[in-house]
Amino acid sequence: MARRASRQHTKRYCRVWDPALRKMVLLHRQLAAEILGRPLRPEEVVHHRDGNGLNNAPENLEVLPDQRHHVHVEYHQKRWRGGQLPLSPDWLPAVALSQSGSVGEGEGAAYPSNPRQPRHFHR
């Protein structure tokens, strides 16, 4: 029996040259920083709401405080897209379908403005 080479699932992202840093940077992180008007902290994660790493429209980007929050959002969005209802039905559709145009703050944000203050998703 022939062995198949396994393919690793890798996400694709746009990169651009940053002359100030003199290196290539991820476009979605650069756009999020410009929209927020401040540099992103190293632990912050820019999440693509539709799952397409090449869609860098501002309404598709969401800044999450860390990778733990990103995994949580990805998990619930995957379940929701697969037809399973989230534990808090009013939360996930607002995150996935919000057209507020804000990045990580305001209506449809998946985390509170103060990351030290937990947001309770269950009622």
Fill in the keyword field for this structure.
two-stranded antiparallel ribbon, 4 strands, 3 helices, alpha+beta, single chain, 123 residues
How would you summarize the topology of this molecule?
Elements: E1 15-18, E2 23-26, H1 27-36, E3 45-48, E4 61-64, H2 67-81, H3 92-97
Antiparallel strand pairs: 1-2, 3-4
Concise description?
This protein has 123 residues and is of the alpha+beta class. It has helices spanning 27-36, 67-81, 92-97, and strands at 15-18, 23-26, 45-48, 61-64.
Structure description:
By secondary structure, this protein is of the alpha+beta class. It contains 3 helices and 4 strands. Strands 1-2 form a two-stranded antiparallel sheet. Strands 3-4 form a two-stranded antiparallel sheet.
The largest sheet is:
2 strands, antiparallel
Structural class: alpha+beta
Q: Please work out how many helical segments DSSP would assign.
A: 3
Question: For the CA atoms, what is the radius of gyration?
Answer: 16 Å
Number of strands: 4
